[in-house]
Design a protein that fits this description.
By secondary structure, this protein is mainly alpha-helical. 51% of the residues lie in helices and 11% in strands. The protein has 7 helices and 5 strands. The strands form 2 sheets. Strands 3-5-4 form a 3-stranded antiparallel sheet. A two-stranded antiparallel sheet has the order 1-2. Helix 5 (178-186) runs parallel beside helix 7. It is rod-shaped. The N and C termini lie far apart (94 Å).
Length: 237
């Protein structure tokens, strides 16, 4: 018959007293109402072979480890879970960085090519050049063009710290073409000066593939309709 065996196990802040008791010893065991006990019924076997005894030891260790694991789980798992939560976004971000970087580089290249085409495809006048062509007599060469820009009759793109005005937006007397003001007003708050330059300088399906800048004088109404179509959700290109 099994005799009482005691073994104290400590794990972190937990301490357990593990004993092997027979029925008589179990009935005499002093217990505490504030403590929890794990009882395993080993049956009525009175003689135990070495194999059986070893099996009991394994079972007891497994049970003890399961209890210890369940008690320590919240304490150990919480930091691991928190670390996992931190690692997942970091890993995803790390994997996404090359893709985002490559995409940003491609977009930057496309934008550079587009702006280079827009600049090369038209004549751009500084405020001084426009004032001379328009025969402004103001001592400040920027005064006249600035008034047109402030009134929304003309737009300018910044180049090397200076405003540059599109020559295609001017008539033969170097005065703003009226439809340009109408288009600027339509796109107010929706397109930057560069956005306007790209729109005027890009092929437009609403103009049968022509660029708005090329038909400002000959087809002003169609240009205005193309601008309205884009605002209504249409596309051009």
């Amino acid at each position: 018959m099994m005799s009482a065996k005691a073994n104290t196990v400590r794990r972190n802040e937990y301490s357990f007293n593990v004993q092997t008791l027979n029925g008589a010893q179990l009935t005499k065991l002093e217990t505490n109402a504030d403590k929890d006990y794990l009882v395993i019924d080993l049956g009525q076997a009175k003689e135990h072979s070495p194999v059986f005894n070893e099996t009991i030891k394994v079972a007891m260790r497994a049970a003890m480890n399961a209890v210890l694991a369940s008690l320590s789980m919240p304490e150990t798992a919480a930091p691991e879970t928190a670390v996992a939560r931190r690692k997942v976004p970091d890993e995803a971000l790390t994997e996404a960085k090359p893709e985002k970087s490559a995409r940003a580089e491609r977009n930057a290249q496309r934008l550079q090519q587009l702006t280079a085409r827009i600049l090369a495809d038209s004549e751009w006048l500084t405020a001084r050049e426009l004032s001379e062509k328009a025969n402004f007599r103001n001592t400040n060469p920027s005064a006249g063009p600035n008034r047109w820009k402030a009134a929304g009759a003309l737009f300018a793109i910044p180049l090397n710290g200076k405003d540059n005005y599109p020559a295609y937006a001017l008539d033969e007397g170097f005065r703003p073409i009226p439809v340009v003001k109408q288009v600027i007003r339509l796109f107010e708050g929706r397109k930057t000066p560069w956005g306007l330059a790209i729109w005027f300088g890009s092929e437009n399906s609403w103009l049968a593939g022509r660029k708005p800048k090329d038909v400002l004088i000959t087809q002003p109404q169609q240009v205005l309709e193309a601008a309205h179509a884009e605002l209504d959700g249409g596309t051009h290109g």
